[in-house]
Amino acid sequence: MTTVPAISIYNTLTRGKQQLRPIRAGEIGMYVCGPTVYDDCHIGHLMGPALFDAVARWLRARGYRVRFVNNITDIDDKIIARSLATGEPWQAITARYTAQYLGYLRRLHVTTVTDHPRCSDYIAQMITYIADLIASGRAYQAGDGVYYDVQRQSGYGKLSGRRIDDMLAGVRVERSESLRHPADFALWKLAKPQEPSWPSPWGDGRPGWHIECSVMSHETLGASFDIHGGGDDLKFPHHENEIAQGEAHGGDYAHCWMHNGLIQYEGVKVGKSDPRMRDPAFARQFKADYLLDTYGASTVRFLLLQGHYRRPNDFAPSALTAARTALGKLHRLLGELLDQQASPGTDTVEGLLLSAHGEELPEAMREPLSKFIAEMDDDFNTGGAIAALFKLAEVCRKLLIQATPDSQRAALKGRALIRDLGRLIGLFQPGDGRDTASDASAGSAALAEAMALVIEQRQEARSDRRFADADRIRDALNAAKIVVKDAKDGASWTLGGPPEAAIEAVTGLLGDVHRQAVAQGRQESARRIAAALHQLGAEGAASPAVPSP
User: Fold this and answer.
1) Cα–Cα distance between 55 and 380 in angstroms, integer?
2) Which of 177, 250, 511, 516 has the fewest CB atoms within 10 Å, counting from its CB?
3) Cis-peptide into 182, omega within 30 deg
4) 371: Cβ–Cβ under 8 A, 6 or more apart, which residues?
5) Nearest residue to 52 (alpha-carbon basis) of 425, 315, 353, 411
6) pTM above 0.90?
7) What pLDDT, in 10s, does the model give residues 171-200?
8) Residue 264, SS3 per DSSP
9) Residue 83 to residue 46: CA distance in whole angstroms
């Protein structure tokens, strides 16, 4: 195997960056906490999988084999409460919302998850794991179940920075008078009437929340694995308790902890207890179906990736609209390339660099290419990588404006490079253009002004008996499926193809006409054409870079 490059990752546990050093050469095991499936998905359920899908894609692009585990919590107090309240079997509730969740992941192009273990499939392994903890003196039986003894855990609180005497184990844990310490947390809960239960040495019951992930990660990835990811709100108590259980059971557990930022609305954190969430209209804005149906899956993914995974994501309408507009500029630049397959051999960084992109790339494109790779190697900074894509787009638009055969070929190469780089982190999938097609009006005013100038230049050429020039304009418009109809009161035009292709064609056409105007000394025409080209070029304006945390 080719030597893999150095990738640095911020480890929440050590509070600093460290070089990725896989436990097994060339392989990465990654576990990311999944949803509790008792209600409709909101964007918080999808942020982690989408962000860590980009991480997994990049690791694969860098030559690693990745096993990406994203669990389904299908046993939980909330699921039981929903079942008791509605009379619907808990299995039917969890099956429905699991299917919904997986469907949303498909829409978001989250394709790298290799395992979706369900808690209910690992009950026997959880019972064995708990028995091991009891046998080693790290857990004990109390009146209502089995609990972990946090005072026996050296360094408990090291992930969250909390002191053991100041903490409680979280709202999901019911306190018992028989606990040795208030922070001790449930490993096995004895069943109450009408609750689902499984037989165990301690009585019929069900597993606690924290033990579920420790056991599923152990069964899928082993006692020690490379990366554990999840939302920033899971540091305590969930991930803190996972570490305690995993280390007590044997092994190092996760070598690196990665935590993604949480949801904001107009710069203010949004959580379940937020009083604004009591307003159904406000709460609806964060529902997965609303976001994906209103803005498109590719826009939602782009919004998540345009910053750094450790920073919060703002889901105010203005932020989503800005993300769709920025993404639409790239989609229109890519045009027909968006729906085409990637260039051969460009699914890895090494392959991409060895392809025609790396061998024949114009000098102006080499710096943003290197920048993209460097940003992703530095703690998976997708925001910096996307800024590099916009820099490439700027280079491509300048080449399109030049409108020479060489510049057109170079622009095509650059556009393909943008597509292929974006796909390394899950952007620019075939069909994504539908999500931003309604936003094509962003370029309609500039296109309309440019077309008015093109028609004027065509008419001027005919009046000056420069018929060859007029014919060239006509042929270029026909090739772009722009239909011009002449009438006594003037010419009109209609689009017979996608607007992005028209913008590209008119940009190239005006570049050619501009050079002719300069050569022929038609200074006023040259000035007006240059202004129109500037407006069309503004469609590729760079996206603001988002700094790393």
Assistant:
1) 6
2) 177
3) no
4) 384, 385, 387, 388, 391
5) 425
6) no
7) 344 556 789 999 999 999 999 999 999 999
8) strand
9) 24
